[in-house]
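Memo to structure team: turn this sequence into structure tokens by end of day. - J.P.
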Amino acid sequence: EVININHGNDVLIPLITDNIAPRCDVYDINYIKIYENIQFNNGYIKISQLPAGDFIAMIRDIQNVDVHINVSKGIGCNGHSVATNRIVQLSESKSLQIVQTKGNRGNGYKVKLDGYNNKYTRVHAISSFGVPQFNIFEFLASPTALPQVYNFRSYPIEFTPDQNVSKEENYIYKRRGAIKEQTDDEKKNNNDDKDKQDNVQRGQRYGNILSTPSLLINGWTEDENNISCTKQNINGQNYQNNNNDDNGTPDNIAPLPIGKLRTITRYGSATRREIDPSNLDTLGFPARMATNLEPDKSGVVSIPSDILESNHNLLTIIALDDNNTSVKYEKLNPISKVPYTDVRLNRGLNPKQHFSEVRDVLLKQKDECVTFDNWPTTTLETYDDFSDIFELYYSIADLNNNQSMKRNLIDFKFLANWNNLTNEEKMTNYNKYCCNEFNFFLKNKDGAFFKSVVVPTLTNRLQKSFFDDYLLGNKGAIERYQRLDLYHTLNVVEKILLASIVGGKLAQNTITNLSDVVSLKRDHIQEFNALFQQALNAKQFEVTSLASNDNQQVGNDNDDDDNESVDNDESSDNDLSQQYQESRYYRVDYMKQSANLIGPNAFWLDYANYILGKSSGKTFLSKNFGFAASNTAESLLALSVISLPFRGQQEEPTIDIIDKDGSTKLKSYIDGATVKVTVNGPTMLLVRSLQETQFKSSSLAVSTNYFDPVDRFEEIDFEKVDKFVNQQAFVAGKTYGCRVVITNVSSVTYKVELLCQIPTGAIPVNGGFRTKNFVKKLSSYATSSLEYYFYFPLTGSFEHYPAHISRNGEVIGYSLNKCEITVVDASQVFDKTSWKYLTSGKPEAKDVLENIKTSPKLRSQDLSKLAWRCADEKFFKEITNILKRKQLYNKSIWKYSLIHNCEQEVGEYLVRNTKFMTLLAPALTGENTGDPLFLNYNAYERNSYRHIEFFKKDENILGLFNTRIHQNNLLNKNQRFKQIYRDFLIRCLYRSVGLKTMSIDDQFCGIFYLIAQNRIKQAKTVFTSIDSKQAKKKISNDV
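Reply from structure team:
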């Protein structure tokens, strides 16, 4: 939309069009002068010999665009043109353009580019059937910063005399560089250089400016408003911690808002549409793509023929570089035989068995495998690296709106890439984030760094906690925590670690106590299912992107990590000091590090069984890993004990599809095949599948009904009720809906899962599904419903698996409706009395007319659906006569009177046509005149004109509107009166040619309007012209 060039160069505007000479008009910015030196060749509009200045090119073709052109007559410098009055950022000399495409389906296509750059130019080709709703141009056309024009402006400049800075400011700036006092000889020698003497700070060394020594190795304060805090690194040297993030920006300084210095333009739609609700699985082949194709030296790109499938009829070619996006469509020659894929549900669930959706986490080691027999109803995700767990914990914090935990996890995001950090980067992060969780992570994940750095640091710590003694291996100091008073100060992780050192009965008692506590949680299964779904979402939809939060301030920095803030009695608004303490658990005050910091749950029970049991030789994996995300400390400790490699070190699992014979490997899944998944390292497999389950009765009832979305209701005894479809009379090719209703007849609230599946032989439509599980919450004595849609492409007999509801892995209810469904051809099922049948072409015209005569429901039907039959003149005359007797009118039917020249019906149609009658008014107005016109526009009958009179609000006001001794300005003061009086005059203009030809009522109305304006003489003239005999017959008066 903006092109900037230097004077003497041509303007090249890329344009894809089929016209040989597209219209382009070039004007100066004020639209005074037009420039005609315009050509179109090879996909570019070329504009030559433009003088320096600003212009606009108006392109009016397939695309209507106004391109602003800025021509600068200046000196080129680093992509800019510098002139005396402005600086112009120059556009590229020629933009990327697809100028030619040649080829065919068999040999592929050759695409010729112009304005290309071999380094950045890429071409993508998409072969598809029809025009997809997903627009590749809108998706890839990134926002573009338009080239800028900087015009010079003159600003007034004011010069002020130089002033010396104050002595106080001079002291503040120079006291650190103060030197000793001068001797008398030095003062005599320096008297001549007064300026130098004034700018030297001498002898005024007030106060101690040395850094305060500290006994803290990792000092930490709860005051988040401080910009810097002194910390001691492991080598004993002082340094300043500015609470910076990874890019050096202070945490407490908000980023500057982005100014509107550059206008960002997005081409195509304002927002990207990345989804397509259309179901195109029935096509024989999906869309094929050839991506990142590079042009050769001549700018030619070859598109391979193997992406052009037999059912494809459209080739989309899109070329792009660092600043341009060009798209072109090529129509492919059709092939007579287009293959299709059978997407019907051919293998449904057995209606005689009960199924429910089961969620489980399978823990697999290297080379172990798992087999799935019902792959279409199985969802599988793998957690096989450290970053997967880290991102899950962040997503859980985001779901729970735990801003402090989100902020803390972002601080530790470097842990996911710890194996790729240099030693210097590791030292920097350790100095900044040293804490119990970090030390425990290093003990389990990086033993060398732990021994060389962490152990010396903890050895020199002034006050050692239980965690310090455990990491240092001080067994004697650890064993004293068996005392009852000290034992109850430990959280569950510390208790497990203590039991691992002491062993014996303490280890056995620890496992037993944890098992008892976890077993008391009633909602464990529901919580596990919720965490399972959250884990699936974190992997499938990538709900977390830590990279996008690198430069963002997350949450409120004053939030404490999952604990209530405690006021410090010693703090006050006037206290400028800050209280520091040793960093133990990250950003948790030492007084809050109690046993409640990390509580017992199923994950720590698994860890206790691992570290205190007999399985300590294997890597530790837990299916309950989602439970360890209540706060920052727990999530970081859980990340430290889960034995998964870092991202990049793991290997993706191997998936084999095996045919029914058990030996043949397939490239894609077919019905009856088996899928075998083999892991290549420690992996946690999240599996959601349908499994056969036992039935257990409950107080929930399930019912299933079918309906026609077009004809959902019927009227029985003057009441509107649901109209259901007979299961033995489904019609092929017609869309049907199924409604499942669950009723809770008890006083207990249930949270259940509803399993639904479409009938076999059917295809889902309207955003439907084949098999899906829904979560429903039913209050006491409540009802919940669900609707889904499908259709049968072919006739036959099919089965519909009844809807099942389950809870905690057990089926507690299912539909008792019949499972058998019969689908017949549309010609076999029809109701001769239905309106749909009557409006079709099947019945005879006489049968339709007979039904219209006797039907009591005719007024509620859409008569316009019969309009197509009115092309027959005989049928038209008969149906209009019937409708007239029934006092019914339909414009679609009466419209055919214009074809059959039926004068009466034409008049009736035109009179009822509001738009047509409005165009007639007021020219063809014959009201009250007796003119024998074919059409009369009667303003009174159509409520478009009324005689309205104006009177004073208060009887004490003299005159009608104002006193008669002053000029009446009623037309200027009252806009309503002005409009009504104007309408009256126009109406009289078309109803009469003069005063004598005016009707009696118009004359009396005119008298009133004249009197209202105090135009008494003109009112009297009109009054004397009235025929008194006719007036007495028309209207009575008391004058």
